[in-house]
Amino acid sequence: MATVPPSAVVPLEERPLEERFTLPDMTPVQYREADSHDRIDVQLGAAAQKDSELAPLAAFVKTDVQSRISLHGAVNADRAVSEHVWEFRAPGDAAVEISAFDAWAALYAFWVRRDHLERQPVQLGASLANRDHLYAFITQTGLGFHAPDSKDTYEVLLDRSSFWQGAGAPRSRSWLQAHVPSVSDFGPLASTAFPHTISFTRSDDPPVLTTHPLRPPKPAPGAVLYSRWVHSVKQHLTLTHIDANNPEHFEAYCRWQNSDRVNVGWREKGDEAHHRKYHAGRLADPHIMGFLVAWDGELAGYGEASFNKEDGMAAFAGGMGDYDQGTHLLIGESKFRGRHRFAAHMVSMKHFAFLREPRTQIVIGEPRVDLSIVPLLQAHLPQDRRKVLPLPHKDAVLFILHRDRFFIDGIFF
């Protein structure tokens, strides 16, 4: 009988009641939950610098009122689950305005302490001088909605999966960085979604012959693609588009690929010319992008995200949708291994893929069937092990990760 790997989930009771962490733009946030578990105070840094001085931002206070969190219209009243309403209020006695920009940061801190729930009722308190504005912000961005049975005008039902999908996230504070097209280059645009335009790929090696959507231009090499604080290891993780002309990037990549441990899985050992040719091909190929994983700026590994329909694997797997994606990863530095970092690496890659293309419904993985990573992928990601997939160069396990399940069950702590 196969051994089940230890869980990477940190139970709520084992998490600290007080923590300082950084938003994706490196602005510090600190939350503190009272020992009585009925109040959460949030402080925010004055600048996008991790050592920036903190100032009180908001408070969340548990009330005696309870509201339904079960799906309205689907779950019978006798089965419906309710939770205490929390008041989102100013940090002190005086009424203040909290910008939508900063309200999102406050909600981030709140979800860190309440992520055992999929939905949470919150009342916008009278001490928020602009609560009409914040109500519009929350409901119009999809961060939450006004429940059909709510009798309080300012009560909203926050949705955790909507938050992690990027609802209401300011562009600078979003986990998805290096936006293309960028506001700094072209100003705010009515839509930044890349249009559905038909393209075509023909290739003999690997075998590809298919129509597919035209893929958007990739961010420049060296651009930070994704940024997120990982609470379980108390460090900041980034994904950066690899720049083979950057000596630090290229040296690390070559060293990792030429190590015996990494070569077992990737089989890309070779000289500098081999590695430069590989990256030139990746850079020129619109369907795939390589990136470096770093913890607090220290390089840890290399990964790739690709669109499946025009990938060489698609002819063997079959059934790939227009916007389905796939990911691969190696961790070159042994100090950054372990179950919590493994889960963070995998969740961050998949999170990046789903965020960069909202039309993506599944992200796949296809590791070689004999690799030790296979049971870890099954344990630490909410994905389905579909089948063993025979490919020309390997027998792979085909994993399918669905968008809805990822945002509900993914380990974001």
UniProtKB/TrEMBL annotation:
<dbReference type="InterPro" id="IPR016181">
    <property type="entry name" value="Acyl_CoA_acyltransferase"/>
</dbReference>
<dbReference type="Pfam" id="PF13523">
    <property type="entry name" value="Acetyltransf_8"/>
</dbReference>
<feature type="domain" description="Acyltransferase MbtK/IucB-like conserved">
    <location>
        <begin position="240"/>
        <end position="289"/>
    </location>
</feature>
<keyword id="KW-0012">Acyltransferase</keyword>
<comment type="similarity">
    <text>Belongs to the lysine N-acyltransferase MbtK family.</text>
</comment>
<keyword id="KW-0808">Transferase</keyword>
<dbReference type="InterPro" id="IPR019432">
    <property type="entry name" value="Acyltransferase_MbtK/IucB-like"/>
</dbReference>
<protein>
    <submittedName>
        <fullName>Putative acyltransferase</fullName>
    </submittedName>
</protein>
<dbReference type="GO" id="GO:0019290">
    <property type="term" value="P:siderophore biosynthetic process"/>
</dbReference>
<dbReference type="GO" id="GO:0016410">
    <property type="term" value="F:N-acyltransferase activity"/>
</dbReference>
